[in-house]
Amino acid sequence: MARGKIQIKRIENTTNRQVTYSKRRNGLFKKANELTVLCDAKVSIIMFSSTGKLHEYISPSTSTKQFFDQYQMTVGTDLWSSHYENMQENLKKLKDVNRNLRKEIRQRVGECLDDLSIEELTLLEDEMDKAAKVVRERKYKVITNQIDTQRKKFNNEKEVQSRLLRDLDARAEDPRYGLVDNGGDYDSVIGFSNLGPRMFALTLQPSHPNAHSGTGSELTTYPLLY
Q: Does the record bear Signal in its keywords (predicted)?
């Protein structure tokens, strides 16, 4: 049965289009390789898929640069001259931009002002005033954030101190707890650490399970302040 002809037009289905591209590309590269081997020809094929992916075939004995150099010699044209001229023009523009930016930076630190007119000096002054205003606002914002942080830290410490004092008052009402008087040995209740002095409360516990035996008691300390 004869194979029907395929109508040459864009394949709308994306998957079918990609499959057809892959198959025909491989077949084209295969034919190019056969032409290279059978006829000792130099063949180069460059193509881009609809997704922008590059596919290239070039005869094994030839590089892409050699191929295009031979093409330029044969045709008598220079493919790189216009590209090189565009690169040189872009380089010149970038150098001009860089030079102007460096000059503006020097002017903002008080240099290179001799050639400026009154209008240019006034404009520069206005720009520096605006820049200083932005820096000043940023500085005030940083200072305000630091003050808020310190205030929150102080309030937290104050709350902890109040809680500890309430706890101390509650324990003072318990007859089992007590603090040394002015004539007592404070070294026994105040300790020191890397964080500073600490205060302890004292409690007397029976030395035997029978609390009514009256045979003695043990001293126990409880940390109150750190």
A: no
- Chain centroid to Cα 172, Å, comes to 55
Which pLDDT tens digit goes with each residue over 63-113? Answer: 888 888 888 888 877 777 777 888 899 999 999 999 989 988 888 888 888
Are 176 and 167 within 8 A, CB to CB? no
Beta-carbon contacts of 207 under 8 Å, excluding residues fewer than 6 positions away, are 215, 216, 217, 218
Query: Half-sphere exposure of 151 toward its Cβ, with a 13 Å CA cutoff?
Result: 6
Question: What does 89-127 look like in DSSP terms, one character per residue?
Answer: HHHHHHHHHHHHHHHHHHHHTT-S-TT--HHHHHHHHHH
Q: What is the DSSP letter of 174?
A: S
Phi, psi for 80 (deg, rounded to 5):
-100, -15
- Convert the pLDDT of each residue in 17-33 to its tens digit: 899 999 999 999 999 99
- DSSP β-bridge partners for residue 177: 203
State the chain's mean pLDDT as an integer. Answer: 77
Q: Are 213 and 205 in contact (CB under 8 A)?
A: no
Asked which of 3-12, 13-22, 97-106, 180-189 is least confident by mean pLDDT, the reply is 180-189
